[in-house]
Design a protein that fits this description.
It is built from 8 helices and 12 strands. With 275 residues, it is of the alpha/beta class. It has 2 domains: 110 residues, 3-Layer(aba) Sandwich (Rossmann fold); 139 residues, 3-Layer(aba) Sandwich (Rossmann fold), CATH 3.40.50. The protein is globular and about 60 Å long.
Length: 275
């Protein structure tokens, strides 16, 4: 029988180390469940909580959070991955290339940041049996997460990448990064189309929560297409529902999260996983 009194719980105490995920909105995130489980699996007395911060309050709220002595790290989601990079005294290699972070952790008395979205996406695709080398890719979105995914895919040396973002300047900036990483990849910034590619990736918020829209104007998708959506809530987005109905290979956003959790916990703790 448990020795915990009926008016207590056994998963948090004054010794518990805190982590948070900062976003606007934040109800769509799955990090609290998945990271807390990862902490517990490593025997850590730690948990991760959602932190809903609106843009006008970002600077003052983060200054207060980073002063907490029992806070060991933060994850950043929409729309803060680019903005959060300024909080880090040092940036990891991927963050330097992308210009954004999704993880911030202590380094002595300072904070360091890096981004793991791209690594997580590529790992998730590989685990699903999806090859990227010498393939043709359509990427929707070139914000913080989209840029990280684009750069990580560039390291896989695809034959062709088409990029699209409502902000043309962001897409052009990502195209330059992809070309620097993989000069042999043909890169274009253009309107979405899927009739000439092998892999479609949505790394925009379109389709999140109760948004019934598709991130591109199509009524059907080629059966041979692999479709990935970075959104985790809902797990089956409008895009993935269409893809499944068309017989496409589907890779859900949870695969990207699973692909980066161990790396991020390693980063937060400084102790590589033995799994």
């Amino acid at each position: 029988m448990s020795s915990t009194p009926a008016d207590e719980v056994d998963y948090v105490s004054g010794r518990t180390r805190l982590f948070g995920i900062v976003g606007h909105p934040v109800q769509q995130v799955r990090s609290p469940e998945m990271f807390t489980a990862a902490f517990k699996a490593r025997g850590m007395d730690a948990l991760l909580v959602p932190l809903h911060v609106v843009p006008p309050d970002f600077d003052v709220t983060l200054a207060g959070l980073l002063a907490l002595r029992n806070l060991d790290g933060l994850i950043f989601t929409i729309p803060y991955k680019v903005r959060a990079a300024a909080l880090a005294a040092t940036l990891g290699t991927q963050a330097q290339i992308v210009g954004a972070i999704n993880a911030l952790t202590r380094e002595g008395e300072r904070w360091k940041g890096d981004i793991f979205d791209g690594i997580g996406c590529v790992t998730g695709l590989h685990r699903a049996g999806v090859a990227l080398a010498d393939r043709r890719v359509m990427l929707l979105g070139s914000g913080g997460a989209g840029s990280a995914v684009g750069v990580a895919i560039a390291h896989e040396r695809p034959a062709f990448m088409r990029l699209h973002d409502l902000d043309r300047a962001r897409a052009d900036a990502l195209a330059d990064k992809v070309r620097r990483v993989s000069p042999e990849t043909t890169v274009e910034v253009a309107a979405p189309r899927v009739d000439d590619v092998h892999v479609l990736l949505n790394v925009t918020p379109i389709g999140m929560l109760d948004d019934a829209r598709l991130p591109l104007d199509v009524h059907a998708l080629p059966r041979e297409l692999t479709v990935f959506d970075a959104i985790v809530m809902p797990e089956e987005t409008p895009l993935l529902a269409l893809a499944r109905a068309c017989g496409c290979t589907v890779v859900r956003g949870r695969a990207m999260m699973r692909g980066q959790i161990d790396r991020m916990v390693d980063y937060f703790t400084g102790v590589p996983s033995t799994a």
